Amino acid sequence: MGINVPTTGPILYAEDEDNDVFFLQRAFQQANIPGLKAVPDGQQAVDYLLASEKDPVKCPVPSLVLLDINMPYLSGLEVLTWIRKQPAFADLPVLILTSSSQEKDIELAYSLNVTAYVTKPSSANKLVEFAHAIRALQESKSGVAFDFSGVSGYRPPPLAC
Questions:
Q1: What string of DSSP letters covers 23-37?
Q2: Would you identify the CATH topology of the domain 2-152?
Q3: What residue ranges do the domains of the chain occupy?
Q4: What is the largest CA-CA distance in the chain?
């Protein structure tokens, strides 16, 4: 599946587990990816996006959103639903980055038009590979799609009958 990612703006990461944020930040540093903006819950992700719409200088519009599914206040799937209903963000690339490999979560995420669904890498090396894939997404030219299928943990959309 090919996806397009703008090259400007921070990456917004909604994750309630401090260790997961820490390890992704480290992986992004190793992949030379600046601008990871982490928020601890789904509501704060929505609040950041609303602020970026009102004042993009103070809160730049993200180039990509990474969402965990299980978070307080609003789940990642609820944030994804909200994003897709907002005209300003309807085309914003959103990746689910979660520990859930339940088919119902994967199917629901794709039915909500998630860009890609990735289960959290199980090792530091795989997390760095994921970060390098994100960097490749950022470096792809506008209009050029990136094939995410080679990334460890990538879960493709369910096959339609």
A1: HHHHHHHHTT---EE
A2: Rossmann fold (3.40.50)
A3: 2-152
A4: 46
